[in-house]
């Protein structure tokens, strides 16, 4: 076989090095911005020529193409500067960095199995010598079944070609014929058997507008399943959305019969369960016994028990229930918003963002606690997300921001504590940032796993280590307070009764003993 490097006298590259993220369009799509370039190796056995086929393995669904500009090293490079790096590139060609999302979990960052399969690096069909052409002059385009789906240029790269060569050369010697795959722009997506992928790299403004020609690959269906002596294909909803590029693109593929629907669209299904492996729910400190103790106990009573132990800043201030009689008790699951900034929202606001992940993965009995920085002029929860939390069995929602679709949310059974109604959509004041981290909500520190308790008086945070003793004390105090209220209703003065002096305490103990004997 011949590849796009054969005309340079190189039959097979010694190393194929690929960059994870480089194009701003792809970085924005992925929602994570790398500070420095990162890499992985692809085996030479993954090389394939133009006009060949690539097999989607039996039992998999997410084979994705990535059109890329490939650099072919000429003179060996070792510890060169970014300014010198481009001088060590002999030629440029087109490459398809194919990958199988179904096997991403197998090797984490190494990508060996999901990116190293036979035929997963088509390259060619021609190499363009770079003499007289600068590093910013290149364009990569990809077509799937004749439709243009990727179109970007090298002058936009986060990490220019010279920097990539320099960075790699300070760790290892880049030798003649080595290939560097420089990243893919937005538009990478899933292909299915029968699809034809074409990739072209050219320099449209250079003399003669040189081009590699189109690198053509046809997708076929494999018939041999993976053996049980290695990792099996695993797919979840996040993988599906990332592979197709966005929720909208996945939905369009489903409508066209090209994709599997999101499994989390089924009631109560966790996205982590789609590949046949469920994310385990941590064991809750809220045992049946403790729940029984706290049944009917007021938040105010529990807060008094916490104050005795030095916990005075455990109130999520400013929030009120959407139903007057709502009570809430559950384990915290946290979501954090940060202040709005256009570039950060572009990178983190779309797709399966942190807000959607929080509501789509909440477990039964958990309370979603949202840090909205105490800004009421925002809609941090709406009717669809609140309904999703209710369907998944959440014990409640707390946000120190606002709630949109307030009337609709009021119709749901799930308790929602907030600063009130506001019609704004996501992106006005906030960027959904991260899930399951320590947050500050309404002035209180909240960690995942804390106990959240709410009623008409407000919402408090109970450290799990104190739960058992605080629950026992608060339950006992609630019984005593109920007896005191009976005495006051019967005409007793509060002096000496509230709090109880020795005389009243003796009467209370006698009354308790009498009740116990019945």
UniProtKB/TrEMBL annotation:
Keywords: Magnesium, Metal-binding
Cofactor(s) for this UniProt protein: Mg(2+)
InterPro entries, per database record: Fumarylacetoacetase-like_C (IPR011234), Fumarylacetoacetase_C_sf (IPR036663), RraA/RraA-like (IPR005493), RraA/RraA-like_sf (IPR036704)
Binding site for substrate: 382-385, 404
Pfam family, one: FAA_hydrolase
GO molecular function, one term: catalytic activity
Region Disordered: start-end pairs: 256-285
Coiled coil ranges: none
Domain Fumarylacetoacetase-like C-terminal: 15-219
Annotated residues for binding of Mg(2+): 405
Protein name, UniProt field: Fumarylacetoacetase-like C-terminal domain-containing protein
Lineage, opening ranks: Bacteria, Bacillati, Actinomycetota, Actinomycetes, Micrococcales
